Amino acid sequence: MFNERGALAADDIPALDDCNTGRIRVLIVDDDPAFRSLLGEVSRSLGYETVEAENGRQAMRLLSGLQPELIVLDIFMPDQDGIETLQQLRNRSPRPRVIAMSGAYSGRFLTMAKALGADATLLKPFSIDDFVAVLQDVCSKR
User: Fold this and answer.
1) 36-53, pLDDT tens digit by residue?
2) Does pTM surpass 0.90?
3) Alpha carbons 102 and 9: distance in angstroms, whole number
């Protein structure tokens, strides 16, 4: 999956069939900078425009000017967690699609995230292939 410099190898990233990804803006929200950066790199390699935020509070500040079509949202973060962010997103129009992700408590809060409007969930740790598959699925439903 990665080349000798540690970068993603282009041949190993599945192509998106159903989406015009050049028009899709993705906001990636996670307090782990390395993980956030990795998801951003994968998303950009697929043609998405990406912006990153380190917590829900920063994400909500970025939303009005950014207007992303998709948010990849971690559940457990300092300052403002993903559950609180999802509650705030429920009243937004247009509401971006949301992929919620978490590994804390064996992913128990992903059920709550789904009930609050997350379009899809990912249990950490997950593979890049799983991430790409969920992006494809959520994108195809827009």
Assistant:
1) 999 999 999 999 999 999
2) no
3) 26
